[in-house]
């Protein structure tokens, strides 16, 4: 008996020489692609069409195969199909609704592929017709809103979100997607919030809902009033905000878990020996297969929530046990979010204890800790463009957090201590820290650790100047809060001072190479002013008087670096070149550091000579420092505890435009045919009543 093969909408008997038979749905599509009204000969044409299983590939391919002129000839039939799809969304039979949703996906993608060079208005005209666009799109958005808010099928809700993501990402630059004007006018914001506030819906659809919201917020955000921005900024419902936080936490945790698994693979046997030998050669490889693109979308959602909604700041500190994910319940669970992580990203299967604790012991965790761990991974390797963008966005999020009064209050709270195991780049000159020995400290210590880690590990030829500037700004903002609120933080400040001095040393050693690309004096000035902040106000926020003494000890011990920096900036500030002004600012900023060096060095030499000691110990130097403060004269420097607040529109618009473009392309790629598969849906709706 001859076997039957199915390919591209054709049914073919492999041993027969007859012409291939087409599926009925393909024959019906062919009728639509003629200039005749298909319902003329068959009044039940549209009713029957939506009972047929959609052939996405054939429909999209057919649309893409037509040239512009041919497409215009069948415009009326395309409009008719679009309108009947919208009508079918109101049908009682779920199979028809499913087929209508999938047909809409194919129509939108197919018509856009054909009209890439034309404006969004032409696409609207081709799909629905100008005269009916407003009413049709209103009906479409209302139907999608009803389906998302109804208590019905979760599969239908999933398909609705896929269609909306398809609609939003149909153009690379979402701000050029004129169809979105109708999504702005007919808002689905409340439907998205409802998904995020319900544990069951959130678990099924939270990821898509959060990504959709992040993209909608970025539609023409600088050009007009975007209702999604306005609405997101005033959300104050705790369950909704927590739900959003849980979705973001799971996506980042899943990334962290996968990275940790890869890291452990490479740290066994041969790879371990090789990695120790060649430093960070395998860092990129260890994480190569882990999708960064999906996390960029989630990271954008976290940024928008932190930046736009002050109430979301409380979610960052919302504690939950750091343990494996709960198995998905079969029945609805209470409205309060009880699972530590709230949704399954598209890449994950159903999770049964997915994230093992990254710390040695199970302890409480929160979104901020998960985010800091994620940041410590993506900021390791900034050579890759995706990671560079991710690293930059991590630092922008931390900048917003460091400026927020409430965030600073819980960051510095002595009663909120956590053990945060950040990922550290393998380096030949240092041993891997033992995870079990990590102390419990206020969260600001982990933020400072992350900044120190970045400073120490990125001094390279392809110098990420922008990231360094942001890093130093974050440290400065945290110090400003500590000075203002007189918070005496028990932190290993020496590690920060040492990192900053080494950074200055690097800038000087690579002056010629770096000056060809960057104004290194901006960064040098910021670093010097951090030291000035410690010198001028350190007695109000350093934990003990001996910490202040240690600051002076480090400056004196490393005086050669400051002397060299002064020589360099003096040389450039006395020349008439382009660096005259920025270099002279550093010269003036060094006045107190030089005063300390010039005051204490002779005293130390004198002490050594009197006591016949060739090399003084640290305690002996500290003794000299303590006994000679009285005669030290320092200049009061203004504005050390002032900073310019973060502003997205004026400074970051180009970055976000490019980032959103990249996310839009990646989301569209991930909406492949298999994610729109009907198999599960048909099982769910196996009978039509």
Topology (SSEs and partners):
Elements: E1 4-7, E2 10-13, E3 21-22, H1 24-32, H2 45-49, H3 56-65, H4 68-73, H5 75-88, H6 94-114, H7 120-127, H8 130-149, H9 154-168, H10 180-185, H11 189-197, H12 199-217, H13 227-234, H14 238-266, H15 269-278, H16 283-287, H17 293-308, H18 313-316, E4 320-321, E5 364-365, H19 367-378, H20 385-403, H21 405-411, E6 417-418, E7 441-442, H22 443-457, H23 465-485, H24 493-509, H25 511-515, H26 520-541, H27 545-557, H28 559-573, H29 580-589, H30 591-610, H31 618-627, H32 648-651, H33 653-670, H34 679-684
Antiparallel strand pairs: 1-2, 2-3, 4-5, 6-7
Main location: membrane
Keywords: Membrane, Transmembrane, Transmembrane helix
Domain Armadillo-like helical: 435-671
Major sheet: arrangement of strands: 1-2-3
The multimeric state of the shown protein is single chain
Q: What level of helicity do the residues show?
A: 55-70%
Provide the low-confidence segments as ranges: 1-7, 277-294, 323-362
Strand content: under 5%
User: What distance separates the N and C termini?
Assistant: 36 Å
Category by helix and strand content: mainly alpha
- Average pLDDT reading: 84
The number of strands is 7
Protein name: ARMD3 protein
InterPro entries: ARM-type_fold, ARMD3-like, ARMH3_C
Keywords: Membrane, Transmembrane, Transmembrane helix
Domain Armadillo-like helical: 435-671
Explain what the structure shows.
The chain is mostly helical and 689 residues long. Helix content is 62%, strand content 3%. It is built from 34 helices and 7 strands. A 3-stranded antiparallel sheet has the order 1-2-3. A hairpin with a 2-residue loop joins strand 1 (4-7) and strand 2 (10-13). Helix 24 packs across helix 28 (559-573). The two termini are 36 Å apart. Residues 435-671 form the Armadillo-like helical domain. One of its GO terms (cellular component) is membrane. It holds the Pfam family ARMH3_C. InterPro entries: ARM-type_fold, ARMD3-like, ARMH3_C.
């Amino acid at each position: 008996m001859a076997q039957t093969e199915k390919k591209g909408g054709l049914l073919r008997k492999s041993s027969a020489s007859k012409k291939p038979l087409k599926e009925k749905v393909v024959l019906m599509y062919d009728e639509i692609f003629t200039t005749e009204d298909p319902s003329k000969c068959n009044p039940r044409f549209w009713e029957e069409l939506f009972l047929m299983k959609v052939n996405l590939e054939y429909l999209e391919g057919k649309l893409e195969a037509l040239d512009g002129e041919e497409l215009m000839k069948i415009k009326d039939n395309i409009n008719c199909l679009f309108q009947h799809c919208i009508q079918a969304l109101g049908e009682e039979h779920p199979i028809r609704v499913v087929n209508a949703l999938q047909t809409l996906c194919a129509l939108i993608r197919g018509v856009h592929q054909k009209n890439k060079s034309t404006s969004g208005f032409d696409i609207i005209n081709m799909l629905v017709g100008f005269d009916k666009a407003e009413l049709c799109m209103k009906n479409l958005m209302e139907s999608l809103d009803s389906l998302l808010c109804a208590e019905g099928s979760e599969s239908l809700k999933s398909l609705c979100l896929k269609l909306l993501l398809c609609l939003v990402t149909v153009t690379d630059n979402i701000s050029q997607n004129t169809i979105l004007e109708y999504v702005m006018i007919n808002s689905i914001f409340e439907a998205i919030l409802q998904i995020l506030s319900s544990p069951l819906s959130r678990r099924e659809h939270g990821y898509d809902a959060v990504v959709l919201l992040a993209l909608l917020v970025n539609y023409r955000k600088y050009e007009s009033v975007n209702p999604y921005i306005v609405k997101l900024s005033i959300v104050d419902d705790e369950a909704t905000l927590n739900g959003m936080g849980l979705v973001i936490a799971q996506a980042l945790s899943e990334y962290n878990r996968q990275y940790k698994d890869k890291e452990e693979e490479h740290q066994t046997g041969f790879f371990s020996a090789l990695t120790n030998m060649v430093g960070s050669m395998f860092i990129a490889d260890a994480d190569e297969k882990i999708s960064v693109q999906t996390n960029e979308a989630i990271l954008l959602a976290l940024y928008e929530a932190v930046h736009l909604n002050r109430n979301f700041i409380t979610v960052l500190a919302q504690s939950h046990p750091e343990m494996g994910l709960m198995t998905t319940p079969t029945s609805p669970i209470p409205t309060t979010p009880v699972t530590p992580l709230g949704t399954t990203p598209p890449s994950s299967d159903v999770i049964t204890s997915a994230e093992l604790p990254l710390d040695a012991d199970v302890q409480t965790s929160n979104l901020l800790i998960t985010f800091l761990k994620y940041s410590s991974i993506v900021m390791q390797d900034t050579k890759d463009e995706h990671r560079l963008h991710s690293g930059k966005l991590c630092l922008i999020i931390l900048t917003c957090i460091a400026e927020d009064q409430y965030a600073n209050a819980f960051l510095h709270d002595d009663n909120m201590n956590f053990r945060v195991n950040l990922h550290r780049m393998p380096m030949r000159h240092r041993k891997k820290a033992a995870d079990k020995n990590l102390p419990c400290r206020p969260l600001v210590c982990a933020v400072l650790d992350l900044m120190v880690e970045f400073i120490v590990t990125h001094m390279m030829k392809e110098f990420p100047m922008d990231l360094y500037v942001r890093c130093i700004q974050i440290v400065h903002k945290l110090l400003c809060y500590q000075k203002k609120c007189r918070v005496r933080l028990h932190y290993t400040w020496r590690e920060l001072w040492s990192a900053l001095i080494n950074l200055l040393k690097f800038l000087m050693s690579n002056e010629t190479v770096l000056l060809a690309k960057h104004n290194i004096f901006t960064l040098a000035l910021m670093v010097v002013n951090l030291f000035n902040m410690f010198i001028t106000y350190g007695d109000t926020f350093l934990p003990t008087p001996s910490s202040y003494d240690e600051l002076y000890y480090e400056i004196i011990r490393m005086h050669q670096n400051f002397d060299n920096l002064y020589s360099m900036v003096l040389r450039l500030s006395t020349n008439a070149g382009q660096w005259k002004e920025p270099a002279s600012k550093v010269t003036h900023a060094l006045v107190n550091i030089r005063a300390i060096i010039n005051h204490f060095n002779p005293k130390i030499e004198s002490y050594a000579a009197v006591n016949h000691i060739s090399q003084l110990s640290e305690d002996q130097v500290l003794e000299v420092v303590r006994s000679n403060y009285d005669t030290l004269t320092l200049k009061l420097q203004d504005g050390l505890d002032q900073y310019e607040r973060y502003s997205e529109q004026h400074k970051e618009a180009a970055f976000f435009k490019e980032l959103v473009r990249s996310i839009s392309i990646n989301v569209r790629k991930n909406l492949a045919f298999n994610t729109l598969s009907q198999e599960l849906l048909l099982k769910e709706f196996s009978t039509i009543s």
